[in-house]
Write a structure and sequence with these properties.
Bound molecules: nicotinamide-adenine-dinucleotide
Low-confidence stretches: none
Oligomer: single chain
Strand order of the largest sheet: 3-2-1-4-5-6
CATH topology of the largest domain: Rossmann fold
Structural class: alpha/beta
Largest sheet: 6 strands, parallel
Distance between the termini: 27 Å
Length: 407
């Protein structure tokens, strides 16, 4: 059985995902960077098919995925059949790409918002999508109080302040109502899985939302270092973490509201992991074009240890931004579909806590990834979704747990 994926925002991350999947299917590369590798029972990596893609960049609309992928990876000259089969369809703009160096167009300009939403639903129906991934430009969002309010925002046509993410959320809910249950994976810093109203709307439609904001780069590493210190009762005095990159997303983050959205999903990590506030500066801090997708990350943590000793941890890294998230998406798609198949609905903290910076549902704590990984494995074992237990699982070391799960 295949999982049919609908991409929303065919940018760097989505194109890296599409190319990586095609190369895995051709046997050219292995499963590096995909946390659950071949440990999942219901679906393998090869079962993932990109069935649809929507974007608002006039230069991408109508192009095949292969054409778009080549704009990011000019050295690709092989023809990958799954990438040739899909063409980028027009999306809903709602100003999400404003101030970016692209010519953005939206279906709502021609049809009005409500009809444009139905065009998107029709497109997804034709493509028979099971899982949608939101990968559009970073957006600042204030969530709706209820699904009815969201419906009103779409119907009134007064969409000046309606984020595109919510128009797609609404379209996904209509799809779930009229076509089949769906999973909406929100990989961007918009508030979706942390919105009680949205989670409830999906729950009522036997559907799922996962989010928010893929935890791919420096923030999960910071949370793990904080956990390491906390477990040893070493007390951080201050945390500084910044990212400078040269891709379009970093350019978009120069906008203050978009940057605020990112800051919101990043900085909760300190008090969530430690249980108390520490002065911190955790922000995307700059666009430098020549860095391209390989961002520069720097981190400084000063802490007090035994006998009032003061130590410092300094980390400098260059990290390829897009593959870091694309690898996580391979798991998210499979877990979302496996959960839908089992009738799970609403949102799933055990998935969000590991893969997302700000895990839903609303009010959830962001925990260190080391802890979240064990939580995820335990959840997968209870679900009967693991083909084998990864080496790092605590279940391998505790005889009672081994017995409990018949390992
Ligand atoms: N490691 C990572 O790269 C990482 C980690 C966490 C989250 N994210 C989030 O993932 C998203 C995508 O990142 P990226 O590097 O691929 O960005 P990108 O700028 O390369 O791609 C964004 C794409 O979305 C399109 N788009 C913008 N508004 C749209 C709309 N309303 N409808 C459809 N398409 C629209 C743009 O035209 C572009 O093709 C960003 O929001 C980013 O914050 C990325």
């Amino acid at each position: 059985m295949t999982i049919r994926v609908g991409i929303i925002g065919q940018g760097y991350v989505a194109s890296t995902l599409a190319l990586g999947l095609a190369r895995i299917k051709e046997g050219e590369i292995g499963l590096n960077g995909i946390p659950l590798q071949d440990f999942t029972k219901s679906y393998s990596v090869n079962d993932i098919e990109i069935a649809s893609s929507v974007d608002v960049d006039a230069a991408k609309i109508g192009s095949t995925l292969l054409d778009v992928v080549r704009t990011y990876f000019p050295a690709v000259n092989k023809v990958y059949e799954p990438l040739e089969r899909v063409r980028v369809a027009p999306g809903l703009h709602l100003g999400s790409a404003r101030n970016l160096p692209i010519k953005a167009v939206g279906l709502e300009e021609e049809y009005g918002l409500e009809d444009a939403v139905h065009k998107i639903v029709d497109h997804w129906e034709k493509s028979e999508v099971d899982v949608l991934i939101n990968l559009i430009t970073t957006e600042y969002t204030e969530p709706p109080k209820s699904f009815e309010q969201l419906r009103e925002w779409v119907r009134s046509g007064e969409f000046k302040n309606l984020p595109a993410t919510y128009a797609y959320v609404y379209a996904a809910a209509i799809y779930a109502e009229t076509v089949k249950p769906v999973a909406y994976v929100n990989a961007i810093p918009a508030t979706v899985a942390r919105s009680t109203a949205i989670v409830k709307a999906f729950e009522e439609r036997s559907s799922l939302v996962l989010g928010d904001d893929g935890a791919s780069g420096a923030t999960p590493l910071t949370s793990d270092i904080l956990e390491y210190l906390a477990e040893r009762s070493r007390v951080p005095r201050g945390v500084v973490q910044f990212n400078i990159g040269g891709n379009l997303d970093f350019l978009a983050l120069l906008d203050e509201r978009r940057s605020k959205a990112k800051e919101k999903t990043k900085s909760s990590v300190v008090s969530d992991v430690l249980g108390f506030e520490v002065p911190n500066f955790i922000k995307p801090t700059g666009f430098v074009e020549h860095l391209g997708d390989k961002k520069f990350v720097s981190m400084h943590i000063e802490y007090v240890g035994f006998n009032e000793s003061v130590d410092e941890i300094i980390v400098n890294a260059r990290i390829n931004d897009s593959p870091a998230l694309a690898g996580l998406l391979v798991d998210l798609v499979r877990l979302a579909k496996a959960a839908l198949d089992r009738g799970l609905r609403g949102t799933i903290y055990e998935i969000n806590a590991f893969y997302m910076k700000s895990p839903g549902p609303e009010g959830s704590r962001s925990i260190s990834r080391i802890v979240a990984y064990q939580l995820l494995l335990d959840w997968l074992l209870r679900l009967g979704e693991l083909t084998r237990v990864p080496r790092y699982s605590v279940h391998n070391f505790i005889p009672e747990l081994k017995k409990l799960y018949g390992l």
